[in-house]
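Bit of a strange request maybe. I'm writing a small parser for C-alpha cell strings and I need a real example to test against, not something I typed by hand. Could someone generate the C-alpha cells for this chain?
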Amino acid sequence: MINHLTNILFLIIISLTFIKMKINRWVALGFTLVVIEKGIKAGYDFYTHNYYSVSWSLAIIVYCIYEMEKYYIEINE
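Reply from user aminoacidic:
Good idea to test on real output. This should exercise your parser:
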C-alpha cells in the first residue's frame, strides 16, 4: 500500500514540476521522500530476487536525483 502512495506522490510531484517549471522546497521534500522509500523497496526487491522492480525503483531514484540536482543548482546561483 505504501508503494502505491509513493507512486501517486511521485506522479503528483512530476506534474507540479512540469506545470510550474521550477522546484520549491516542498517539491524537493517530496522527491526526497520518494527516493528514501524507493531505496528501501529496491533493497527489499533485490533481496527477494525481483530484479524487474529493482530496475524501476532505480530509474525513479535516478530521475529524482536528476531533478534535485537542478534544484540545488538553482538555489546556489
